[in-house]
């Protein structure tokens, strides 16, 4: 093997190492809503999620049906592992109510949400206020009308 062959070999090694870079997962927290009714359910979910590679900590709040996994994990794999237990699981669908523009709108409000939380929805604002004052709008208009003798006046 001559100098030219050695250079080709070294450059091939260098270029192949760039092709096969390993992607490192970032430390993140994944929150799930998992239906758990008893200690057995909770233990089953804990066992399935703690066995995932990269998990650093696992917290289960059965009262809120919430599981928090922290580690070098992917949300999709954590969700898949939770569903593999046979339990109904989804990514945590709630946010604190003070982070939502209209927390008591029918799309956000959820009876099953833990106290202080509402369902996370992307509120679509079409720029009209008709959706806010859609019911009984007429009495408010006539309240300040000049034609109404009992109307309020603003001076």
Word description of this protein:
There is one protein chain. This protein has four helices and six strands. Strands 2-3-1-4 form a four-stranded antiparallel β-sheet, covered by helices on one side. Strands 5-6 form a two-stranded antiparallel sheet. It is 29% helix and 19% strand. It is of the alpha+beta class and 155 residues long. Among the domains are: 64 residues, Alpha-Beta Plaits (2-Layer Sandwich); 29 residues, no CATH class. Keywords: Metal-binding. This is HMA domain-containing protein. InterPro entries: HMA_dom, HMA_dom_sf. Pfam families: HMA. GO terms for molecular function: metal ion binding.
Keywords:
155 residues; alpha+beta; Alpha-Beta Plaits; two-stranded antiparallel ribbon; 4 helices; 29% helix
Architecture blueprint of SSEs:
Blueprint: H1 3-19, E1 28-34, H2 39-50, E2 55-61, E3 66-71, H3 75-83, E4 89-91, E5 94-96, E6 117-119, H4 137-143
Antiparallel strand pairs: 1-3, 1-4, 2-3, 5-6
Number of strands: 6
Indicate the low-confidence ranges by residue numbers: 126-137
Give the biggest sheet: 4 strands, antiparallel
* CATH hierarchy class name of the domain at 28-91: Alpha Beta
CATH architecture of the domain at 28-91: 2-Layer Sandwich
CATH topology of the domain at 28-91: Alpha-Beta Plaits
Based on secondary structure, the structural category is alpha+beta
Mean pLDDT: 75
Note the run of SSEs as H and E: HEHEEHEEEH
Radius of gyration: 28 Å
Q: Ends: how far apart? A: 99 Å
Helix content percent band: 25-40%
Shape: elongated
InterPro entries: HMA_dom (IPR006121), HMA_dom_sf (IPR036163)
Protein name: HMA domain-containing protein
Organism: Carnegiea gigantea
GO molecular function: metal ion binding
């Amino acid at each position: 093997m001559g100098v030219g062959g050695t250079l080709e070999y070294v450059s091939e090694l260098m270029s192949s190492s760039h092709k096969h870079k390993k992607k490192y997962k970032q430390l993140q927290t994944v929150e799930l809503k998992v239906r758990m009714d008893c200690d057995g359910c909770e233990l089953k979910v804990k066992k399935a999620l703690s066995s995932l590679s990269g998990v650093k900590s696992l917290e289960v709040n059965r009262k809120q049906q919430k599981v928090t996994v922290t580690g070098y994990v992917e949300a999709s794999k954590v969700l898949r592992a939770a569903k593999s237990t046979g339990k109904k699981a989804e990514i945590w669908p709630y946010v604190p109510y003070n982070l939502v523009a209209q927390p008591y709108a029918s799309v956000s409000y959820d009876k099953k949400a833990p106290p202080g939380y509402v369902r996370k929805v992307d509120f679509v604002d079409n720029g009209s206020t008709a959706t806010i004052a859609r019911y009984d709008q007429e009495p408010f208009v006539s309240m300040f009308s000049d034609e109404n003798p009992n109307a309020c006046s603003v001076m």
